[in-house]
Amino acid sequence: MFRMLKTPDMLLLFFCLVGAVDALQKQWIPDTNYENKTNWDKGAVPCGNDIVQFPAQRKVSVFVETTHAVQEMRLPVDGELILNSGAGFYVVSGKDPGCGAGVTTQFRDSESLQWFNPALWQAAATLEDLQPGNFLFSVHEESVPCQYDDVVFKARSSFRVDTSSSQSIPVKSVSVLGKKFDSRSEFSQYLGSRSGQLQFQGSTGVTVGNQDCGDPSGCDCGNSVNHQRICNTVTCGTLSCKKPLLPVGHCCNVCGAIVTIHYAAGFNLQTYRERIHHLFLILPKYKSIQLGMSKVLKSQRLMEVIPFGASPEIQVVVVDGEKGSQSEGLARDILKDARSHGSNLGITEAEFQASSGSSSDQTGGSAGMVVGVVFGVLIMITIIIIVVVLVRKGVVQMPLSLPSLPSLSSLKKSGDVGGPIDHGFDNPIFDRPNMLPDIPGVYTAETKHSISMTQTGVHFINPLYDENETDFNA
């Protein structure tokens, strides 16, 4: 299928996106352009003496920007050629003098290019920064488009990307061939079109329409659910630093430093990112530094084992090569700046760790102490809850009864026992044997004298059970 692309459509991209500065711009790097020599197996764009061949059973959408001479062209069963205004193909009569002997050159297969491969994306703060190459460094999870990002496919370009995932992929907007889609229904309609089916493949689709991040302190990227899928596309190299670090959201250890910032109301991530850039990154000594800054949700673990939630914090990743020697210097500068101006920036605590093995104590004053106290209380409450749960499940057995306390009398010395005995209340039968009623046949003089009192209680002889008084065989 041939489709002509008019020049006015090309201008639409610029006017639609020139004001889109609220989110990061994530641009897809690969393309399926005819003029891109890396798309051909011979490493050169075909010329008039060459035979052009596309894989017969592969779907492809190829953008053609100018006019090209060919000897022969073998098209795929399912595909399209998108012709820019004035672009096309022609066959020369005879030999093309500047082409050589002529070869059969094949268009490379683009089926394996995955959305979740961080190496296939470039990030910039604005569209204007994409053109000169002012790209931002990010951890692997955030190199792939986040839920608040604008996704850009180059204006004069086509592509094919595999969006397979366990769930839909939300982004703010998608720009394809000069048109920006920020309406879910409109973009769904494009995905169902012939071009959309050739450019996007996979079991799940991309959805647009997410709003800007409304939190000045930043928002979580949202790609942690696809962490393993992202890391499956990454190959980690060997490192030579003493103690490599693993940032949150990254797939590989790095040599450098990680600055962790705890914040309060009033902290603005974008303002702080610009501050670090103007204060430090423009200095010649930090020219080779790569710095990525974002909000992350760091898992909290009780005694480094039991997870009990996640806390938001600002992670600053500083990388400068295999040894990370300059990264530690920048980390110390950032920490010093946070210590001096943290109260004005909304920073309550800051600390860093470096791949050299160095680290810092937290800085933050009373706010840090309050956080520490609260954290300690939470640990105590957690321990109590764990004990209660273990008791209820029968893992831990509580004693049936507590040992009784010794009586006061047992604490007295033997020489002090001669005092009066407290019997609680008067019982005329046992406490005063002389007041026993004179009942014939029951109380005799002999039985009255059988009642006695000792320090351990009152004893008497029951004539019903005394073998000397009663003869049951009579």
Polypeptide structure, described:
The chain has 474 residues and is α/β, with parallel strands linked by helices. The protein is built from 11 helices and 23 strands. It has helices spanning 7-17, 127-130, 140-143, 184-191, 194-199, 227-231, 269-281, 325-345, 366-392, 408-411, 445-448, and strands at residues 2-5, 25-28, 51-53, 60-64, 67-69, 72-74, 79-84, 88-90, 104-106, 121-124, 150-152, 161-162, 169-170, 173-176, 179-181, 200-201, 206-207, 256-263, 290-302, 306-319, 347-354, 452-454, 457-459. A 5-stranded mixed β-sheet has the order 10-2-11-14-15. Strands 19-20-18-21 form a 4-stranded antiparallel β-sheet, sandwiched between helices. The longest helix is centred in the C-terminal third of the chain and has 27 residues, at 366-392. It is elongated and about 95 Å long. Residues 6-22, 364-371, 411-418, 442-449 and 469-474 have low confidence and may be disordered.
Based on Cα principal axes, name the global outline: elongated
Structural class estimated from helices and strands: alpha/beta
Uncertain parts: 6-22, 364-371, 411-418, 442-449, 469-474
Strand order of the largest sheet: 10-2-11-14-15
Q: What is the rounded distance between the termini?
A: 129 Å
The total count of strands amounts to 23
Global Rg: 42 Å
Largest sheet: 5 strands, mixed
Q: Strand-residue fraction?
A: 15-25%
Helicity range: 10-25%
Mean pLDDT: 81
Number of helices: 11
